[in-house]
């Protein structure tokens, strides 16, 4: 496979696993192993090698799953399990690019609305198609879609 298809993020996660093993950081190591296992599952199932864009999408999905789990655990008064999920979120976030600020998100939304020619909420799909690759791993796509909806509604 060409060098362009190889994920640098995946390589950094693999080296972080080795560091966690040496440091005997059990919790960090178990989370990194979960991440790498998910990558391997996708690669085997789809017979592909993950690139950085797909790695970010997988990490984003893992974050969303853990946030959902936390809210369910807290609703069931299981703070011990919620704390485990929060610790996993902290590890996963270390592999994501820096989060976008609210001003940066607003600027991206404005650019996407202008470039897609969106005029109403019916054009939201066009705007999100432009935004999604730019937001991957850097902002909560669900929250951004609400911002887009508000902008298009007004």
Key attributes of the depicted protein:
single chain, 154 residues, mainly alpha, 7 helices, 0% strand
Pattern of helices and strands: HHHHHHH
Biggest sheet statistics: none
The helix/strand class is mainly alpha
Proportion of residues in β-strands: under 5%
- What is the helix content? over 70%
Evaluate the radius of gyration: 18 Å
CA-CA gap between termini: 47 Å
Could you report the average pLDDT, rounded to the nearest whole number?
88
By DSSP, the count of extended strands is 0
Uncertain ranges:
none
Q: Helical stretch count?
A: 7
Q: What general outline do the C-alpha atoms trace?
A: globular
Describe this entry's structure for a reader.
It is globular and about 55 Å long. Helix 2 crosses helix 4 and helix 5 (102-116) packs across helix 6 (124-135). It is an all-alpha fold. The longest helix is centred in the middle third of the chain and has 24 residues, at 52-75. The protein has 7 helices and no strands.
Question: How would you sum up this structure in a few lines?
Answer:
This protein is mainly α and 154 residues long.
What is the strand and helix layout of this fold?
Layout: H1 8-23, H2 26-46, H3 52-75, H4 79-93, H5 102-116, H6 124-135, H7 141-153
Helix pairs in contact: 1-2, 2-4, 3-4, 5-6, 5-7, 6-7
């Amino acid at each position: 496979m060409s060098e362009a298809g190889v994920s640098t993020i995946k390589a950094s996660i693999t080296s972080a696993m080795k560091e966690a093993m040496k440091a005997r950081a059990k919790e960090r190591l178990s989370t990194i192993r979960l991440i790498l296992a998910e990558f391997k599952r996708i690669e085997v199932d789809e017979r592909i090698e993950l690139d950085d864009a797909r790695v970010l999408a997988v990490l984003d999905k893992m974050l969303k799953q853990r946030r959902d789990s936390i809210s369910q655990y807290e609703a069931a008064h299981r703070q011990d399990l919620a704390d485990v999920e929060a610790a996993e979120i902290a590890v996963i976030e270390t592999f994501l690019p820096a989060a976008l600020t609210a001003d940066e998100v607003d600027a991206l939304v404005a650019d996407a609305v202008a470039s897609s020619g969106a005029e109403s909420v019916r054009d939201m799909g066009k705007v999100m198609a432009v935004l999604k690759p730019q937001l991957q791993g850097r902002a909560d796509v669900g929250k951004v879609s609400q911002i887009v909806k508000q902008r298009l509604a007004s």
